Amino acid sequence: MNITAKEYIDIVAGEHYVKETISTTAAKFHTAGVQESFEPVLEKFKNSVEQEKLVQAGLLVDYPSGPTRFYLETGIINLSFADVKKVDNFFLNLDEVVPVNVYLVVNSEDINASHFRIDKIASVDEMLANSESFAVKVIEQVAKQVAIIEENQANKADE
User: Fold this and answer.
1) What domain of life (predicted)?
2) How does pLDDT run across 106-127, given as a tens digit for each residue?
3) Which of 34, 65, 80, 156 is the most buried (most CB within 10 A)?
């Protein structure tokens, strides 16, 4: 899947992308586990991408210390949809056709000092070519971030 930087900016800035959020409590999240909790997000994300749409699909976990958001976003650079106004700074030619990638975006008071993390998971083409491997990679990455968040929460509680 490819797109021009200009098309990407216009679609995201105009909020003409698919947006899906599933909410859960921390207790339900722990009972179900990362894989079971995140599978509906993966399904919604994959279905939208198969229709060649830009998408933000995520899971909102309501921890006692505050909400944590795990989102999969289609993007052309390591910036979330919230930072779309900065995307043009990275392209000399906005008509350049570039590949669309999949990023995992995490927003949490407890992830790091900036409360934000973004990681490239794969290109959309790689995701579509091997969706099972992609799903495993996403689940592993979400689990890794959950472990960091929960360790930081435990450290705060000890202070």
Assistant:
1) Bacteria
2) 999 999 989 999 999 999 999 9
3) 34
Domain tally for the chain? 1
Query: Residue 57: its pLDDT value, please?
Result: 98
- Closest Cα partner for 5 from 79, 99, 78? 99
Q: Are 74 and 128 in contact (CB under 8 A)?
A: no
Q: Average pLDDT for residues 10-21, to the nearest whole number?
A: 98
Residue 66, phi-psi category: left (phi > 0), alpha (psi -120 to 50), beta (remainder): left
Tell me the pTM: 0.94
Domain span holding position 106: 2-158
Other C-beta atoms within 10 Å of 96: how many? 13
Contact predicate 106/68, CB 8 Å = yes
